[in-house]
Write a structure and sequence with these properties.
The chain has 180 residues and is α+β, with helices and mostly antiparallel strands. Helices cover 28% and strands 17% of the residues. It is built from 5 helices and 6 strands, in the order αβαβααββββα. The radius of gyration is 19 Å and the shape is globular.
């Protein structure tokens, strides 16, 4: 699958080059979910582990530019707002998305505090440091991972008393977000 996608993206880029449109075209590539591929013993996409929730996002402005890897937390809703911004259209009504154009232009303040995900009755927040999951109907916290100390999400800290403050804070954020 990866080879096929790579081949087809190459064909699109070659066509843009042939028609003289490559230097006039934004290239944006992403997908809607990852695959666990056996990580954590899982083979599906219906969870919040990084293998499922973290997806590629490549943005190349017209004419290209220097390659930059940016680990800023973003949501897929930000892609829609970015495209809207590039097109010069007004922001989408009721969208949580934020244009990434300021970030692409080097604005270090153009970051979001967290990314939000939801699968059935479960919801998660991903901050720069933590990933928190809660069962939405009951409000019961299920998972807390320190993504700096434990990037493979092996140690669930949700019941660690030393982390009760961050659990409370993220639960409050998530509850408020879902009520909005």
């Amino acid at each position: 699958m990866v080879s096929l996608i790579d081949q087809q993206i190459g064909a699109v880029l070659a066509s843009l080059e042939t028609t003289g449109q490559l230097d006039n075209t934004w290239i944006i590539y992403s997908c809607d979910h990852g695959e666990m591929l056996g990580t954590h013993g899982l083979w599906a996409k219906m969870n919040f582990y990084q293998g499922s929730a973290q997806v590629p996002l490549l943005i190349v402005p017209p004419g290209g530019g220097a390659s930059v890897v940016d680990d800023t937390v973003v949501e897929l809703t930000d892609v829609a707002e970015t495209i809207t911004d590039i097109a010069g259209a007004p922001p989408l009504a009721r969208s949580r998305g934020r244009s990434l154009v300021p970030r692409l232009q080097g604005d270090p303040g153009a970051v979001r505090d967290f990314a939000y995900s939801r699968i059935q009755s479960y919801a998660a927040l991903r901050t720069e440091r933590f990933r928190f999951t809660m069962e939405s109907r009951s409000g019961v916290p299920c998972e807390l991972f320190d993504m700096q100390e434990d990037p493979n999400e092996r140690v669930n800290l949700v019941n660690d008393s030393s982390r009760s403050g961050i659990v409370r804070e993220l639960k409050h954020e998530l509850t408020a977000l879902q009520g909005a």
